[in-house]
Q: What sequence folds into this?
């Protein structure tokens, strides 16, 4: 018992120290910025404000709208700060019941089918009233250090049953007349789960690192290799999902909370290229391999064609993404007896998905009356189709059709 | 997991060995403070020919810019102003534009409220920046009355303004 | 065998790096918005959030890069 307490204490101290250290670093960067003359030979992001209105609708009955406002402002020649606020409004997240087949079999139609994280009700059923708000607030700083660029970002996400704090740092160093860039990123997050249907709270922590290597091969060809490694520990389950154990021989049905391992190591390697096809068009091709110790392996293929018109004042893009995934070792569509680890989460199932994207970006100088080249209007439409090896635990659909739409603008302030 | 680690180590190895082996541009002169500025010929926007050595005896500010380069867009109006303020002194600014299409440069210049009262060379083949082996865009080089390179700057920010004015004063003494 | 394949892959990348240098004055093509990886990182963040909520993988989706490299 003492050992466990010591271990927990050590984890708490470790997290506390890291948080403190990162905050201290942020402060030091801010202070030194006004005293040290930075040899400036890189460009900071421009001062800008960006507003996006995003929406998501799917055939599982989930609708989400999430407006986002972000800004970037330079404080001096070597430093710029940025901030973002995002609000998720989730509607109809308490899903329609499709448990009828199981229920009619055992004829025990009672109680509650399922909760989702957005459900505040004690009964299932679908409606169009917003169920939940999630707020995300971020603050970051970008600092030029000679040719290198360092950034530090602090992000909070809050909802009624969940909170998360993330600290992300990155360092980008160009070499060989800026033809080669190495970027190192480290992200640590601490999540707290306090489901309203339970009395307990549970923590999760994630530490991820990314190494990106970008090479300009010619004026028409750029390639990028990215390596990713992540370690998750703590409560990795979803408290709102329900594992139903059904034994057809004995007409036995029992509901359990999902049980996940309390650690996960994830690794991925992605490679992509950007090729100029002609004066006004380019093609981006990418491949990513992912693996983890839950036995999920995946392959992602992606392509994006971009076309510019009116010099570069109107950009049009069309993209496709294809994804294959093997299931987690403990995932089962249906359990006939309780097991050590149990999950019915569709994202841990075998998956084949496709996403189609169309986007456009229009410079304000082309818009009559406004005629302001500092304004940029953006729009994006995505159709996402996911097929899982077995039907979803709750909706009983094996195909998810989701439609995403995003509109927004970006205004350059300097 | 192990393979990814090996990939990382090897990538780093090869990357760093390549950086060490990076070859300098073969057409470039030896450009550093204290050396003579290499002479060049170019065509200015109105079609006339310009030769750097024609301006020997004057303090020369040689600037490399392009319409597609953000900091250049901020620098150019300042150079117009600095030249106008010192026009009657022994000083000339030569701005070398490297846009592939003359139209792009012209469009940018037309948008500016300030106008250039000094020669702008259009070098679409980028022979002059190659000769000077510039490190970044924009690059600004001060050449003294004897044709010697005295200051080299890459990039442009607000603090560059005071620095450039200060250096000009020093060279005009 | 797998290690050898990775080694060959990395050596090829390395060789390519050594033989190419795009000069600062040649970057007109690269300054164009269609030659930038992830021109709008905020939009990308939203897309990744949506995907990671529906699939079991994460990471290695690339970082913003490209552009004229001016300044």
A:
């Amino acid at each position: 018992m003492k050992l466990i307490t010591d271990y927990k204490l050590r984890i708490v101290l470790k997290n506390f120290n890291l948080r403190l250290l990162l905050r201290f670093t942020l402060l030091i960067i801010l202070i030194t910025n006004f005293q040290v003359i930075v040899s400036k030979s890189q460009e900071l992001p421009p001062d800008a404000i960006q507003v996006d209105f995003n929406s998501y609708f799917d055939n599982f009955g989930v609708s989400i709208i999430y407006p986002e406002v972000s800004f970037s402002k330079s404080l001096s020649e070597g430093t710029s700060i940025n901030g973002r606020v995002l609000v998720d409004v989730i509607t109809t997240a308490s899903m329609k019941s499709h448990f009828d087949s199981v229920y009619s079999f055992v004829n025990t139609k009672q109680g509650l089918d399922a909760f989702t994280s957005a459900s505040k009700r004690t009964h299932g059923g679908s409606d169009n009233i917003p169920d939940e708000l999630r707020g995300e607030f971020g603050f970051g700083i970008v600092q030029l250090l000679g040719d290198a660029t360092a950034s530090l970002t602090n992000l909070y996400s809050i909802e009624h049953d969940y909170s998360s704090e993330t600290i992300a740092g990155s360092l980008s160093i160009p070499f060989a007349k800026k033809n080669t860039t190495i970027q190192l990123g480290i992200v640590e997050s601490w999540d707290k789960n306090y489901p309203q249907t339970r009395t307990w709270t549970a923590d999760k922590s994630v530490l991820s690192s990314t190494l990106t290597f970008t090479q300009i091969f010619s004026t028409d060809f750029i390639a990028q290799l990215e390596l990713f490694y992540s370690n998750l520990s703590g409560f990795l389950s979803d408290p709102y999902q329900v594992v139903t154990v059904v034994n057809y021989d004995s007409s036995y049905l029992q509901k359990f909370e999902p049980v996940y391992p309390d650690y996960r190591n994830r690794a991925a390697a992605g490679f992509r290229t950007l090729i100029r096809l002609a004066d006004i068009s380019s093609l981006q091709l990418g491949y990513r391999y992912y693996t983890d110790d839950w036995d999920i392996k995946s392959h992602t293929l992606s392509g994006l064609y971009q076309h510019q018109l009116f010099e570069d004042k109107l950009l049009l893009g069309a993209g496709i993404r294809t994804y294959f995934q093997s299931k987690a070792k403990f995932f089962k569509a249906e359990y006939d007896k309780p097991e050590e680890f149990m999950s019915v989460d569709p994202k841990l199932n075998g998956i084949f998905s496709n996403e189609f994207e169309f986007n456009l970006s229009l410079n304000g100088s082309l818009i009559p009356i406004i005629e302001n080249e500092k304004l940029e209007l953006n729009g994006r439409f995505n159709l996402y189709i996911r097929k899982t090896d077995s039907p979803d635990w709750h909706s009983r659909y094996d195909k998810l059709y989701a439609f995403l739409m995003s509109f927004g603008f970006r205004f350059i302030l300097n | 997991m192990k393979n990814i680690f090996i990939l990382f180590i090897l990538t780093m190895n090869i990357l760093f060995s390549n950086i060490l082996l990076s070859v300098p541009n073969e057409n470039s002169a030896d450009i550093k403070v204290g050396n003579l500025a290499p002479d060049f010929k170019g065509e200015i926007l109105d079609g006339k020919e310009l030769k750097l050595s024609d301006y020997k005896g004057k303090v020369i500010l040689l600037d490399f810019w392009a319409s597609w380069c953000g900091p250049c867009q901020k620098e150019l109006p300042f150079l117009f102003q600095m030249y106008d303020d010192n026009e009657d002194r022994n000083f000339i600014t030569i701005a070398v534009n490297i846009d592939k299409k003359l139209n792009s440069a012209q469009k940018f210049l037309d948008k500016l409220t300030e106008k250039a009262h000094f020669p702008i060379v259009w070098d679409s083949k980028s022979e002059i920046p190659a000769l000077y082996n510039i490190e970044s865009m924009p690059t600004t080089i001060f050449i003294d009355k004897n044709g010697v390179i005295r200051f080299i700057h890459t990039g442009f920010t607000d603090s560059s303004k005071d620095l450039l004015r200060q250096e000009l004063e020093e060279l005009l003494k | 065998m797998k290690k050898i394949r990775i080694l060959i892959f990395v050596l090829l990348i390395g060789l390519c790096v050594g033989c190419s240098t795009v000069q600062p004055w040649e970057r007109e093509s690269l300054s164009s918005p269609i030659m930038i990886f992830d021109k709008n990182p905020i939009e990308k963040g939203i897309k990744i959030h949506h995907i990671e909520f529906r699939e079991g993988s994460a990471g290695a989706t690339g970082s913003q890069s490209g552009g004229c490299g001016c300044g």
In short: The two ends of chain B are 65 Å apart (CA to CA). The beta strands of chain B are 41-43, 49-51, 59-65, 91-97, 120-122, 139-143, 149-154. The CA atoms of residues 17 and 77 of chain B lie 42 Å apart.
